């Protein structure tokens, strides 16, 4: 009996227990190698730092220079000032491309770009800031008087066919108003021009050939008197109608070239300018200066014409009307022909 019991215990120890353990392992009771573990994660790149020194062009450190760090993809950077030793520091900087901008009052900005590697402590090359180049803009504003003087100088160069004086016309669309000295300067230039003397000489010759002002006689004396009378007409008409009265009445003695519009409108404009003019205030008004100058010149001529050639009041008025007609013809000439025959005029609105 005891032998059978001992045999049963032997079978239990040698067969049943190992079998039970084998089944437990098969059913996945707890081996660690078979249990699912956590998922593997990629390592996070380590941030780094950037530092450097800022000096000026003489090698002196710059305190308080603004250093701006901008990383790729960022729209706004980080700012730090350079310290008392001219150094700057940026800590905890993500690796990758970066840009540094250096600014300081009175100095030209500097830029440095680079790439920071993970965990790197990058020291930039020495940053040297130079004095900013100063750009000074000077705006020169001329006074109206200076502008008028310059325009008069240009007018005094205007000559039809390159030699006939054409001073009393302006091709500027908005010329500066003339001072009295400008008006007298034009009168002086016109009456003392060599071409004026030549024209007076020619008219005096024609007058002598036609025995005009017969009281002067013939010969050299008669010619000299005719020359003097003709030149006196030019001087009195120019100074009274082109300088004295325009200065007193604040009127402009010049013809304002129009140059634009239809031929009919320009013709009417030229005809009207024999009796109207621009005032110094820029407004159109009756041309009292020209009309009064013609009448005054006709009256003064009675002081030096031969006695039997002196006219009454009616003759003075008729002479003034003749001169008015001459001015009208001259205006039409100025509007349509003079610009084409006057080389070197500077006016954008002059029609070819």
Give the key terms.
single chain; Immunoglobulin-like; 2 domains; 4-stranded antiparallel β-sheet; 352 residues; 9 helices; 4-stranded mixed β-sheet
Describe the structure.
- This protein is an alpha/beta fold.
- The chain folds into two domains: 48-129, Sandwich (Immunoglobulin-like); 144-341, no CATH class.
- The protein is built from nine helices and 14 strands.
- It has helices at residues 2-26, 144-155, 180-191, 194-209, 219-249, 263-272, 288-301, 313-336, 338-341; strands at 48-56, 66-71, 78-81, 87-93, 96-104, 107-116, 121-123, 127-129, 159-160, 164-165, 169-170, 255-256, 276-278, 284-286.
- Strands 1, 4, 7 and 8 form a four-stranded mixed sheet that branches. A four-stranded antiparallel sheet has the order 3-2-5-6, with no helix packed on it.
- β9 and β10 (164-165) form a beta hairpin.
- α3 runs antiparallel to α5 (219-249), α4 packs across α5 and α6 runs antiparallel to α8.
- Residues 1-8 and 19-34 have low confidence and may be disordered.
